[in-house]
Structures are given as C-alpha cells and as structure tokens.
Design brief:
The complex is a heterodimer. By secondary structure, chain A is an alpha/beta fold. Chain A has helices at 47-51, 79-85, 102-112, 117-130, 147-159, 177-194, 205-211, 229-234, 236-241, 248-258, 270-282; strands at 4-13, 21-31, 36-41, 62-67, 70-71, 86-89, 165-169, 197-201, 214-219, 222-227. In chain A, strands 6-7-8-3-9-10 form a 6-stranded mixed sheet. In chain A, helix 3 crosses helix 4 (117-130), helix 3 (102-112) packs parallel to helix 5 (147-159) and helix 4 crosses helix 5 (147-159). Chain B is mainly alpha-helical. Chain B has 2 domains: 8-145 and 239-269, no CATH class; 155-225, no CATH class. Chain B has helices spanning 16-19, 22-38, 42-59, 63-70, 74-87, 104-130, 133-144, 154-184, 194-199, 202-225, 244-269; strands at residues 93-97, 100-103. Chain B has a two-stranded antiparallel sheet with strand order 1-2. In chain B, helix 2 (22-38) packs antiparallel against helix 3, helix 3 (42-59) runs antiparallel to helix 11 and helix 7 packs antiparallel against helix 8 (154-184). Chain B is flat. The chains are: A alpha/beta, B mainly alpha.
C-alpha cells in the first residue's frame, strides 16, 4: 500500500474571483513507503501547494488524498493526527522559531502530541543529534543561533515528532555550499536510519541527483513524471524545454557522447562520472 | 481565512472621478460633508443624495460595492435610528405602549439621521474606491504641508502611512505562513477555552514580531542606501496637477451646495 496517494487532486487559488489560478491540476500519484523523493519544478509549478495537501493544511478543491490508506478531510478531527504522521518543514523554517530555548522549541511538536516528558526528552536529544546540533546549545535562545543552526533547530522540531513521512520544502535554500551539503547529507542519513519516507523540494538538480531514489517533476500544475533519477534525467531534452536544467555532469556527458566519445550518457553524479572517465582512460 | 481581508478598497478605473486630483477630491468630500450638515430638510438632503449618487454613477463603481460599504455600519445605523425613534418624546404621538412613546417627530428625525449617515458613508467610500492609498497619502501630505511651519513632521507622517499600507499584505502573508508552519507542528488554535486559545497565539505572534523587526531593519537600510533623508528637497515622480475637470468638479459641488440651501428655503415656503 502506498504511503501517499492522490486521486485527481486539484487545487484552485482564489476560486470565484478574477484572480483564480489552478495551482495543482488533476494529480494522480502513488508514493511508496521508504522512498527518498526529490521534487523539482519551476517556480509556480505547484510544488509547494502540492506538499501542503499531504498533511491536510490545504483542502483540495476536488480530488482525494490518502495518507497510509486513510482519506484526508473525511473526518476533520483526524487532521491533527495526520499532521503528526506527515511532518512538513516549510521553506525558511527558522522563521517559525518562537520559544525561549532551543530545547523548548524542538519540544513544541512532541508536546502537542501529548507525549510523556521522558519521551519528549529522548526525542529532542535524538533529533538534535540527527541534525548535528550539539547539546550545549540546548538552553540557548533560538534567536542567538547562527543562520545554519537556526535552520537545523527548526528541522529538528519537525523530526522530533517522528513522522512517518518527512517533507521538506527547499531545506538548503539560502545556505552556503558547505551548509547545504551538510544539511542534505544529514537528511539522507536520517532517511537511511529511520527507513521512513522523505520528500524534499529543491531547485538544485545536483542535490536532487545526488541524494534521492525517486524524482517527481512538476510542470505547470501537473505531474510531468515520477520516476527514478536515471529515467528522469534520460529525458534531458524535455526537461530543458521546461526550463529545468539537468545536472551539469549529465550535460557534460551528453556533449561527450554527441562529440563521438564512446560513453554512456546516463550520468548524473560526479562520482559515477569520474568512474566512467577513469575506466575510459584505462582502456585506451 | 486571512485572504478575505481587504484593506485599501481601491477599485481601479479610468472614470472622471478616478482622474480627479486627489487633493481636490478630499476637499470636495469635506465640502460634501458640510453640505449634508447644513441641510436640515428632506429636500436639502435629497439634493445632497442626488449629488453623491450622480458621482457614484460617473465613477463606474458597481452598485453592489456601495451596498457592501454600508454593510459593516448597519449596527450603527440601526442604533441611531432606534435612539431617535424612542427618545424623542415631543410632537404628535403616533404610538403608545407602557413607557414606549413614538412620536411623528421621532420618526422623521430617525429617518433624517439615517439618510444623512448613509449619504456620508457613500461619499467617503467613493473617495477610497476611486483613489489609491498612495494617492491618498500623497494628497494628505500636500494638504497638510502648511503645518510644517509649526513643526509638524508632515512628510514623515505621510511616509509612515505609505509604509504601513505597503506592508499590510506582506504581514498577512507572513502570518499565514507562520500559522501553517505551527499547525504542521500540531498547534491547535481552534479549540479549547479562551485562555488556551490566547496562549496558542504565542507561537504565531513571537515569530511575526521578530520578522516585522527584521523587515523594518532591512527596509531602513534599503532606504538609506538610496539616500533617503526625509522630505527635505525631495521631488516626486508623479506631480499632482489640477486641471479643467477639477475646476469643473469644484463648480458642480458649489452649485449643489447652493442647491441645498435653496431646497431648505423652498421647504419653508411650502
């Protein structure tokens, strides 16, 4: 059974006004448990709107959403439980910090779940470790932290709810290259340890190619494709027509092949590309 | 929920009313209010009504919008009506029941007051419908500029108003985002006692205030980077100019004010 399933999901902003706009158009999707899904698409392609349906923050204009087999919006009182099941980290999540200490802020979610103090304590410490925050900042005010630390604390706040699905909207945006690599690596590690489903929106093809097991491409409010990275980047021509770039390394290999070099063109990580080049050089 | 709030109910258009100099528009609205208050007969009030309804027709604003602007003030209208109806005890008695006395004078005064207030609301909403908030603050700045002589910081006040108007939609958007983020962490704002609900607002307000301060600092810096240093020697891109249609509007208003005075007189003779 897929963990997330949508049937004909459609969402229209400002319905009935002159400004109405279809943000998500008739989306049918099945996401299996344990995947690490990367979501890419142009600005305004409906990515953020789509993910807000998965934890019941937005109510579909038409169509259905199923989480773990349960249909959302059928019983409104169940929504809060669904939100604990599907953790959503918004873009720039550091703007949601509000408590007087990092510890209390991370504990906000678990506390709302009504867990015992010892369980909350365990979860806060575990999720801080997961995002690489040392325990000695626990009693600090979240507003004293650096930008990267704030981001980590905010992500930890959602991780601490131990959701079955963790969705992150551009978790690395606005961070320096070192910070973004670190955060993405930690998300991947979280996925490997917990073996749960993780979805992540990103604009960087390199990040998506490096970290994910499946890619969802959104284009003009519709799902363009949902497939493995190899299959998705294989359609590089179509992606480029949509204004999305394939990873730089894929472009290099496409050009090499076009120039007559006997090489595969399904390359989307630098490591794999390096291996191919080395092999090619050895066999010469 | 928050998206439903409309502030600055400007209704873009190109009608003659839209194109009037905003300064003149404000002055004429003041003249209109004076007009309503010198009218003390139904005739005079009728002339005022014709004036404002004519202006409304010229502006091309849907009739529906006029009713919409009246709706929030309904309680006030009803209250004023009832007050006049029940507490004026002079004149011919129309109806009497225990301590309730309704007189003819009470009925006419209540009707008179209600019509006057309705006309007032229509007139002032016409101003906000046809003038963008920026134009309005610009005009207010110009109209009040003589006060600079007595050291009133007119430009600064107008700038504050402009910034406040500019940031209302931004703050609404921020609030929406923060609310979604906290809801995603299981914040519950809809159920529970009043105290519980008030407490549930803390996770919304703290980040909102923090982000407002951040925006304020950024805006101040951006303004300084562009050499903003107050109103001294500042020129404008859009100069306010009075033209023929403004003089025409002043003339028409003057005619109507005279009309009101005459209508009141005629009423006396009948």
């Amino acid at each position: 059974m897929p963990i997330i399933k949508t049937e004909g999901l459609t969402y229209v902003y400002g319905e009935g006004t002159p400004f109405c706009k279809t943000a998500v158009d008739n989306v049918d999707l099945e996401i299996d448990e344990g995947e690490l899904v990367g979501i890419i698409g142009h600005t305004g392609s409906g990515k953020s709107t789509l993910i807000q349906h998965f934890n019941g923050l937005l109510k579909p204009t038409s169509g259905k959403v199923f989480i773990d087999g349960e249909q959302l919006w059928k019983d409104k009182s169940r929504l809060r439980d669904i939100r604990f099941k599907v953790g959503l980290v918004f873009q720039y999540p550091e703007y949601q910090l509000f408590e007087e200490s990092v510890y209390k802020d991370i504990a906000f979610g678990p506390k709302n779940m009504g867990l015992s103090d010892s369980e909350i304590d365990k979860r806060v410490r575990e999720s801080m470790r997961m995002v690489g925050l040392s325990e000695d900042i626990m009693e600090k005010s979240p507003f004293e932290l650096s930008g990267g630390q704030k981001r980590r604390a905010a992500i930890a706040g959602v991780m601490a709810m131990d959701p079955k699905v963790l969705i992150l909207d551009e978790p690395a945006s606005g961070l320096d290259p070192k910070g973004r690599d670190a955060i993405l690596a930690q998300i991947r590690e979280y996925h490997q340890q917990k073996k749960n489903t993780v979805m992540m929106v990103s604009h960087s093809m390199e990040d998506i190619a490096k970290h994910t097991t499946k890619i969802l491409v959104m284009n003009k409010a519709k799902v363009f494709c949902y497939d493995t990275p190899v299959n998705v980047f294989h359609r590089s021509k179509e992606l480029e027509q949509m204004g999305l770039a394939v990873p730089q390394i894929t472009r290099v290999f496409n050009r090499l092949k076009a120039a007559g070099v006997p090489i595969e063109d399904d390359v989307y990580t630098v490591e794999f590309g390096k291996k191919l080049i080395m092999r090619l050089l050895e066999n010469r | 929920m928050l998206k439903d709030i409309t502030i600055g109910q400007y209704f873009p258009g190109k009608s003659i009313i839209h194109r009037l100099d905003p300064r003149i528009k404000i002055i004429l609205i003041v003249a209109f209010i004076v007009m309503l208050f010198i009218a003390d007969t139904f005739f005079g009030l009728g002339v005022g009504m014709v004036f404002v309804l004519g202006a409304f027709l010229l502006s091309g604003i849907p009739f529906k919008m006029m009713l919409k602007s009246l709706k929030p003030l309904m309680p006030l209208l009803i209250f004023t009506g009832l007050l006049n109806l029940l507490f004026i005890r002079t004149g011919d008695v129309l109806f009497k029941w225990k301590f309730l006395i309704i007189t003819k004078l009470g009925v006419t005064t209540a009707a008179f007051m209600i019509i006057r207030i309705v006309a007032l609301i229509i007139g002032s909403s016409l101003l906000t419908y046809t003038t963008s908030p920026i134009q309005l603050t610009d005009a207010i700045e110009r109209l009040f500029s003589p006060l600079k002589v007595i050291k009133v910081p007119v430009h600064e006040l107008a700038m504050m108003m402009t910034i406040a108007l500019r940031f209302i939609p931004t703050l609404i958007e921020d609030t929406d985002k923060i609310m979604s983020a906290q809801k995603a962490r299981g914040a519950d704002m809809e159920t529970g006692s009043i105290i519980k609900r008030a407490k549930a607002l803390v996770p919304i307000f703290v980040p909102l205030i923090v982000s407002s301060f951040r925006r304020a600092v950024e805006l101040a810096l951006a303004m300084e980077c562009r050499c903003y240093h107050g109103g001294e020697g500042r020129t404008r891109l859009k100069q306010l100019k009075t033209s023929f249609r403004d003089y025409a509007a002043i003339f028409v208003t003057a005619v109507f004010i005279t009309g009101v005075v005459f209508a009141d007189k005629i009423n006396f003779f009948i």
